[in-house]
Amino acid sequence: MMMKQANQQMWALFFCLIISSCATYQRSDLYFGRDIPDGGQVSDQQWKNFSDSVISHYFPEGYTEWNAEGRWKDTQTKKTITEPTKVVTFFGKTSKQRDAALDSITQQYLKRFKQQSVLRTDSKCSLRFISANK
Q1: From CA 72, how far away is CA 82, in angstroms rounded?
Q2: Rounded to whole angstroms, what are the CA distances from 70 to 41, 64, 110?
Q3: DSSP 3-state assignment of 8?
Q4: What are the φ/ψ torsions at residue 75 (nearest 5 degrees)?
């Protein structure tokens, strides 16, 4: 009987660990190409204005921006295109509001800079902040 009870407790603990790992955060990355189809590029100032007025509006708690170089194959010319890209990374709990905010940011960028698409990736992750020991 003791062995059965210990086994049940072990499975209960295992189940709780699985549930808590399912309640992890979501990492979302948005990839914004900076080439403008009619010519030119989204300038650093234009990007800053977009980030400050649009992205910060939806995510005032914070996000991370970094520069990247995107490469993709043009389906018509079959040539590989290289394009400067801004990647914005967000961490948060999954919700309809968060999803709508990410979609709104994407749609505003598409419209403002006449883009064909913005790449979005989502993945589950666990995170923690590491502080200095005191």
Answers
A1: 7
A2: 14, 18, 17
A3: helix
A4: -70, -25
Distance, in Å, from the CA atom of 59 to the CA atom of 89, rounded to the nearest integer, reads 11
For residue 61, the domain's CATH number is 3.30.70.120
Predicted confidence at residue 17, as pLDDT, reads 42
117 is written with which tokens? 């698409």
Q: What is the pLDDT of residue 1?
A: 55
The pLDDT of residue 118 is above 60: yes
What pLDDT, in 10s, does the model give residues 13-61? 444 344 344 457 999 999 999 999 889 999 999 999 999 999 999 999 9
User: Structural domain tally of the chain?
Assistant: 1
Which structural domain, as residue segments, surrounds residue 96?
22-124
Distance CA(17)–CA(13), nearest Å, equals: 6
**CB-side neighbour CA atoms (13 Å) of 69:** 3
Amino acid at residue number 12: A
Q: Which residue has the tokens 């989204």?
A: 42
